[in-house]
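input
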Amino acid sequence: MTISNVLGKAFRLAYYPICRSYARLFVKDKPADAILRSFCRLAFLTVYGYWPDLARPRLFAERLWDRMLHARQPLLTLISDKYLVRDYVAEKVGPGCLIPLLWSGERPEDIPYDRLPHRFVIKTNHGCGYNILVPDKAQADRAGIAAKLARWLAVNYGEDTYLGIAWGYRNIRPVIIIEEFITADGRPPADFKFYCFAGRAEVVTVHFDRYGEKKSIALNRDFERLRFRPSFKQYAVDQPKPPNFAAMLDLAERLSQGFNFLRVDLYRLEERIYFGELTPYPVGVSKFISFDIRDLDRPLGEKWGGNPDWI
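output
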């Protein structure tokens, strides 16, 4: 670990709790005030390496943080809720792309293992990364799963993680959801993340082996690989354009209608397209992002904000 990484970790451990506490106690559901913006500017500098203009955001990363700090439309909560968003998607494009829901409930001890199939996926609806793959329920550590779910359910993801500014998650009522385990050759299918601006997909990142080596590539809407500086590593193997990529692009753009920016995640399993999630704050407070933000920060920022009546 480099000195800069050590200093960055120390900063997050010491500074982020201060931001979270202020947001929780004084800002709550209101747009950020001048004090919280000041806290976040310094944190932004450590993440992206430049001082942001949050009063007149123009760059992509600035606009992401502006949305987290100031946008308070209830629709942001609805689409961030991985349970309620299913109804939103079904109304918008029909239910055919939804991964079958096997069960939902609020208590880990109520999970009906005996009625579930051989394999499935357990999630909670109120944050990011709250997923448990169960490839064989006979081997599942039910007590360990229950303990992990209890820890997750006790977290308010909007208030208790990072800087406490991902407002869309703040008012989600936590629920456990269990979905069918969709696989490609025994592995989770490739994850296509469409970065849509004013209803048009401009960038797509494709993620392979998401629970293993996490290989990824970044492409434009024509499925041409984006070329970044050599230090930015992408999966070296060229991927053929899926035959149903146009259908995926159309589905992502229809789901992004109403938003000046939205990331739409889809899975491809042979000829089937499945909905993954809608993300208004993709990796907003982390150094890692799915493409080299330094090369696309300005051009994507210019594409954001095409419709003043959209979020």
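quick obs: The chain has a mean pLDDT of 91.
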